[in-house]
What we know:
This protein has about 190 residues and is of the alpha/beta class. The chain has a single domain (about 5-190), classed as Zn peptidases (Aminopeptidase, 3-Layer(aba) Sandwich). The chain is about 35% helix and about 15% strand. It has 6 helices and 7 strands, in the order E-E-H-E-H-H-E-E-H-E-H-E-H. It has helices at about 25-35, 50-55, 90-105, 125-135, 150-160, 175-190, and strands spanning about 5, 10-15, 40-45, 110-115, 120, 140, 165-170. A 7-stranded mixed beta sheet has the order 1-3-2-4-7-5-6. Helix 1 links the parallel strand 2 (about 10-15) and strand 3 (about 40-45). Helix 1 packs across helix 6 (about 175-190) and helix 4 (about 125-135) packs antiparallel against helix 6. It starts with a strand and ends with a helix. The model has no long low-confidence stretch (mean pLDDT about 95).
Amino acid sequence: MKIAGNLINPSVLIIGCFHEDEPQGEYLIERYLDKKPDTNIVFIPCLNKYGTKNGIRTNENGVDLNRNFPTQNWEKTEKNEFFGGEEPASEIETRFVMETVEKYKPRLILTLHAPYKIVNYDGDALVAANAISKIIGYPVEESIGYPTPGSFGTWAGVEKGIPTITLELDEEVEVQLLQEPVFKIFEMLEKY
């Protein structure tokens, strides 16, 4: 797992590739860092390297990292592509993100997912979600539409009180065509 960007005093954390069937995040983050290496945002371009390498949603242990956070609603589920692990925060990737949040104390967090074309938010993030929506043209939704026990958004946005946005990108659009709006979002967040 790699951290890039401003590691001294960042105000925003952006994470790509919780699930490797959502590779757009890593590509967009890496291209942005190529363009602007002196950014004041801290990035985790790809959280799930095992999934990247093997083309699957889960990590090496078959755990959906976005169901493995120690939230009040975490629950042990059957072992499928949404398996939240044997216990909360059982996975090294989950603990890495938790440690990154504790170390850098971001004022806002953005995670990049796909394919729902929405701006989902947790915690006090409605203003930022609306600003992102205006740039990318996706609707703002408070709920993703299905239960997500142990999700990062619940852990960071609801339980830690850090405004957290999940940007669900359109997987049917060539990722290169997402660069312009997503870079505008990143540039806006530079000023957050």
